[in-house]
Design brief:
Length: 537
Amino acid sequence: MLTTFAPRSLSILALACYASIASAQSTPVVPTDLVLSKPSWTTETEDPKFFLHQGYAGAIEAIDMAGCVFSQPKVLKFSTATPPVTNYGLVLIDPSEARKLPRGENSITIDCAGKKTSFVVNNSYPDLTKTVARFDDSDRQAMKLIVTRPPAEVSASLRGVTFWVAASVPGSVFGVPDQQLFFLVPKAGGGTEWRQLTSDVLSVAFAKNQSAANPSHEFPVNFGFTKEEMAAINAKVLFAYQIDGSDIKVLDYSYDPKIETMIAGKYAEPGRLHAYETLNRVRAITGLGYFEQDVALDKAAQAHADYVKINGGGQYYSHDEVPGLPGFSGISPSDRALSAGYSSTFAVGEVMSGSNGGSNSSVWELLGGPYHAFIILDKFRYYGIGFNDNVYVTDFANKPNNPQKVIDKSTVAIYPCNDIVVNVQSQGYEIPSPSVLNEKQDFGYSSTAIVSIGQKITVDSWELRDASKKIIPTVVMTKDNDTRNLTREYFASLIPLNPLPRVETSYTSVLKGKNNGIPFEKTCTWRTTAFRNFWAN
């Protein structure tokens, strides 16, 4: 039997400003025959390599790895700097060749002296076989229309792209019954202005050209008002675009002030950027405010990751540093943030993980443990990440005049929910373990409920069912029964007593309770995957 396995997760720790400390460790899977250090890789992500070696169980036959054959030899090949040896080899993934594969998952067969396994390359590179138009609203004051076209189409283009920008405003703002349409037009002397037009709309179009070398073109628009102001009058922005005289297509955008707009991270490394974006997508899908990257918190998190690695982990795999040791930058997370230049004395929350599965695995692993999820889903606004090899550190904080936007007092947010896809490859093993489990470590991927800060959530019943409607044995943890006193009154968690199957399936949870004394009922559906790197939902 040919198998693949997930890299063994070493440990996780978490610490928030209210001193919740947690860690996790997963049990190893015993593989046989050929073994992959990871089962898949996605384009535009970190670490394009993996190890291939003989398994540990059963009779071990010597395999000359140099003789292994890949069904996609341009995509996968052994490292020449570290040549393969008997029973072991380092395989490199060529990102440029991987982008040429069909979009989605591509299974590549590996044949070593008749023993076969497969490695999955997921090509997430933008599909340039058709024109794609989308919004980028990461700028708080403006938006961009991004039109991506096939290079061959651009090369044959004579007139490029023409686009229009309009704002649709409710008539009630002006005391009239009908929607009013304003176009963004060039203004005498430079700049633009909003104007109502009754004719000659074509004359106010903005023309842009593209090139085959740059088939993805951005059209930034300065609206002259903020998205909050747009939301206040229930206005909607319309983008219309036309390519080479073809039919005019229209996209519309409206801003929901309940969920802030994500500010793009400026991380050069794909792993850091994807961790940041994944956590923000999770918070958005859950109904919470976004994080913002803070360079001082990045510096503090990186310094602590370096300290842990330099000192060999072990007893130093902690949130507190020891003065005088190599790499020391501050005793506590707050000390390190101030030392790195963070402009606030607010307490800093910190989570750490040590995982050979990379930052992708760490993100989902942390979210699946109650004490970790409480921190990541809490009221923090600013974010910083650092890593050194398999040590990942993430810091969270606020500033006095710019706190996180809290959820509405009538809202009960739950993670996972809203059909989100969750990676359950790593589950359980928090240290300390959730108090309601009486030191049991191998529990399942947990759910977290959140209400507005200053309010209390009361759980009357909370059940979890699998795709066959079978009830999963669980236990609920709230502030009232958490003897470790690490659960705040606006949090609750539903903890499966055993790990959930590491397969692609779906679950439904039903929570009935009270939000500050007011009864509510909320149903959530969510899906799972495992042994696969993915970021977007």
